[in-house]
Design brief:
Blueprint (H helix, E strand, L loop, with lengths): L25 E5 L2 E4 L4 E4 L2 H4 L8 H13 L13 H13 L4 E7 L2 H18 L7 E5 L10 H4 L3 H7 L6 E4 L4 H11 L4 E6 L2 E2 L4 E2 L4 H12 L2 E5 L13 H5 L5 E4 L11 E6 H7 L17 H14 L3 H18 L4 E7 L2 E6 L3 H14 L1 E2 L1 E3 L2 E4 L7 H19 L1
Parallel strand pairs: 3-15, 5-6, 5-7, 7-10, 10-11
Antiparallel strand pairs: 1-2, 2-3, 4-12, 8-9, 11-12, 13-14, 14-17, 16-17
Length: about 400
């Protein structure tokens, strides 16, 4: 199929895509809608890949990007000592809105890179402390932490592991939200060999939320054994659940907090590893040794400018209130549809479990696209993650379109 396109992208390898997708290529967007090359308009209930938090026509972010392109379009943070001023300002603004114990941020380009950076940073600190054998990591099955040599190893999807071949070793997985299995794994590996436990507060693979008290107990366990507690909020952070972070909402104090996707509204690549002062001190313990992680575009001025604009857009709380209100509206509307077993998640990170086989739900996704609604699916679940600025009318449209598309599938 790839012979029809110079661009190789993942959808070309799926059985549900025609050989030529040029007429479906997206050409414009406004609000929560996108339009393809054939003029068809879609309500995007997946926010691109969960990152178009402010929709497709936010003038504040777009203007900030344009202004920065005119002033200083390129700079770097990896070497030497002249960071872009806008990146310094962004870091200061970002830590000001994060939980108080997180005082420093390392800027990256993608969520996967932030995950890898966090694990490498945890191991790096142990090495400088003279404890290099403390390198093992515990993550969860069905957790999603991106794709890459180490990120894929942390992601809890066995199929992905098989397709990637040998991955970075030292990562162990336990069942989601199973405290007994987590304790057993910690004892089996040896608490003194585990450097970090990393997890999402809501699983990105299906909007499955941690049960009450679980995250707090993991944090307590980490404190007891000196393990770094890493919370991955690449998907949930910056408004997706109706709060800036689930971490702050629950009063958690992780050693590292990972952010990406919505922090730049998806307009530019941006991610962040927020750390405690203790983690930074550990990484700077030897002035002659620099933390060996980063890439050319990390913390670039254009992305930092976009990040600043997003902070401004979220500052008055209006967007977050909209997420809570529209999330409640969608939850009620979706729960009333036929074949819906339950609606999970919070805010605008929802999983709609259907009483249908996975094959029928895959067909439903295609029917939705033909009807003008873009959704994601995972097994028998429809994932609904629209932009944070979705309107009440948009929500009515979303529920109505899904109802129409469900009818022939459930008949």
């Amino acid at each position: 199929m790839t012979e029809h396109h110079a661009l190789w992208f993942n959808a070309l390898t799926t059985k549900t895509s025609p050989e030529d997708v040029r007429d479906r290529a997206l050409v414009s967007g406004e609000g929560c809608h996108v339009t393809d090359a054939a003029g068809r308009r879609y309500l995007d209930a997946r926010s691109a890949l969960w990152n178009a938090g402010l929709g497709y026509s936010n003038t504040a972010v777009a203007d900030a990007v344009r202004a920065q392109l005119d002033q200083l379009p390129v700079a770097q943070l990896i070497r030497h000592d002249q960071p872009p001023q806008v990146s310094l300002r962004y870091a200061e603004r970002l830590v000001a809105v994060l939980p108080e114990h997180l005082r420093h941020v390392r800027l990256c380009s993608t969520g996967s890179q932030a995950v890898e950076g966090a694990v490498f940073l945890s191991r790096f600190v142990r090495i400088l402390q003279g404890d290099p054998d403390r390198s093992q990591v515990i993550a969860q099955h069905d957790g999603y932490h991106g794709i890459g040599g180490l990120a894929s190893a942390v992601t809890g999807e066995p199929e992905l592991h098989e397709l990637h071949g040998p991955l970075v070793p030292g990562v162990h997985h336990v069942r989601p939200w199973d405290m007994e299995e987590l304790r057993t794994a910690l004892d089996r590996i040896g608490p003194g060999r585990v450097t970090a436990i990393i997890l999402e507060p809501i699983l990105g693979t299906g909007a499955l939320e941690a049960p009450p008290g679980y995250l707090e107990e993991v944090q307590r366990l980490c404190r007891e054994h000196g393990v770094h507690f890493v919370v991955d909020e690449v998907s949930t952070g910056f408004g997706r659940t109706g709060t800036l972070t689930v971490t702050e909402e629950l009063g958690l104090e992780p050693d590292m907090l990972l952010l990406s996707k919505a922090i730049s509204a998806g307009y530019t690549p941006l991610a962040a590893i927020a750390t405690t002062a203790e983690i930074l001190a550990g990484a700077l313990a030897r002035p002659d040794v620099v933390f060996p992680h980063g890439s050319t575009a990390d913390g670039n001025p254009v992305s930092a400018a976009a990040g600043l604009a997003v902070l401004d857009e979220l500052a008055d709380g209006v967007v977050l209130e909209n997420v809570r209100a529209r999330g409640a509206q969608l939850t009620a509307g979706l729960a009333a549809l036929p074949s819906v077993l339950r609606v999970r998640g919070r805010g605008l990170m929802l999983g709609v479990d259907l009483e249908l086989p996975a094959e029928a739900v895959a067909e439903l996704r295609l029917r939705c696209r033909e009807a003008g609604l873009l959704v994601s699916t995972a097994g028998s679940t429809v994932i609904v993650t629209p932009p944070l600025v979705i309107t009440a009318a948009d929500c009515d449209e979303l529920v109505g379109l899904l109802a129409v598309c469900l009818a022939p599938v459930t008949a």
